[in-house]
Design goal:
single chain; seven-stranded mixed sheet; about 130 residues; four-stranded antiparallel sheet
């Protein structure tokens, strides 16, 4: 069973930064497309950013473009989400997920919870 563990969440003031980590075990992150998703209370799951298996393609939600950056460290078998200029509306539970083999980066970012492999999430709260 593929396993993903998120970390790095916390409380940050508006305009601040956080870096989320998604550590993988029992598989290599460069064998799968990986995505970051978030869900705020009462809202639907949103694909925030995804990176292709090759690492050559990335996708971002319009709401985070220019502020968030996804990256991957194959040696550490970890995917990161650098979040800058955080806003209160970024407050949510953030998940990382690995997609089924051969999924495109576009499909990855709209993947439903009943597909792929998911971590347990890390809470991000943006508040003054």
């Amino acid at each position: 069973q593929l396993q993903l563990v998120e970390s790095g969440g916390g409380l940050v003031q508006p305009g601040g930064s956080l870096t989320l980590s998604c550590a993988a075990s029992r598989f290599r992150v460069d064998y799968y497309a990986i995505g970051w998703f978030r869900q705020a209370p009462g809202k639907e799951l949103e694909g925030v950013s995804c990176i292709s298996r090759s690492g050559g393609s990335t996708k971002y939600a319009d709401s985070v473009k220019g502020r968030f950056t996804i990256s991957r460290d194959n040696a550490k078998n970890t995917v990161y989400l650098q979040m800058n200029s955080l806003k209160p509306e970024d407050t949510a539970l953030y998940y990382c997920a690995a997609g089924p083999l051969a999924i495109s980066v576009q499909e990855m970012c709209v993947m439903s919870r009943n597909r792929g492999y998911w971590g347990q999430g890390t809470q991000v709260t943006v508040s003054s």
